[in-house]
Amino acid sequence: MIRYDKESEMDKKTIDLQKTVHALCSADPELAPLLAELGFTEIVKPIMLNTVGKVMTLPKGAAMRGIALPTIIRTLESHGYTVIEAPQEEKK
């Protein structure tokens, strides 16, 4: 029996909030159904993912859908993802 004590690079699932939804879902096909459960119901439609998904980030989509970003982050983390957050924008 082979035992792995450390996660391999392939096992690490990372979500960069600066990347588009299309880029994230293309890199990890398991992500789209999870996001759909969170309220991003249109994401499972290929035409939406291939159009709007190419310009939409998770924070922008969350704001549009009225979904709290911390809820999304907690859910992703509970499913084994590491979430990389963008630095807070400075107020002008």
Keywords:
92 residues, mainly alpha, SP0561-like, 5 helices, globular, disordered N terminus
What does this structure look like?
The chain has 92 residues and is mainly alpha-helical. It has a single domain (13-84), classed as Orthogonal Bundle (SP0561-like). Helix content is 41%, strand content 9%. The chain contains 5 helices and 2 strands. A two-stranded parallel ribbon has the order 1-2. Mean pLDDT is 86; it is low at 1-10.
Q: Over the alpha carbons, how many angstroms does the gyration radius reach?
A: 14 Å
Average pLDDT across residues? 86
Looking at how many chains there are and whether they match, the oligomeric state comes to single chain
Please report the number of helical segments: 5
Strand % is 5-15%
What is the CATH homologous superfamily assignment? SP0561-like
Q: Based on the structure given, which CATH architecture is correct?
A: Orthogonal Bundle
Tell me the distance between the termini: 58 Å
CATH structural class: Mainly Alpha
The SS-based structural class is mainly alpha
Number of structural units classed as domains: 1
State the major sheet: 2 strands, parallel
Q: How many strands appear in the DSSP assignment?
A: 2
Helicity, in percent? 40-55%
**Fold-level CATH name:** SP0561-like
- Strand sequence of the main sheet, in spatial order? 1-2
Report low-confidence residues grouped into runs of 5 or more: 1-10
Shape: globular
Spell out the helices and strands N to C: EHHHHHE
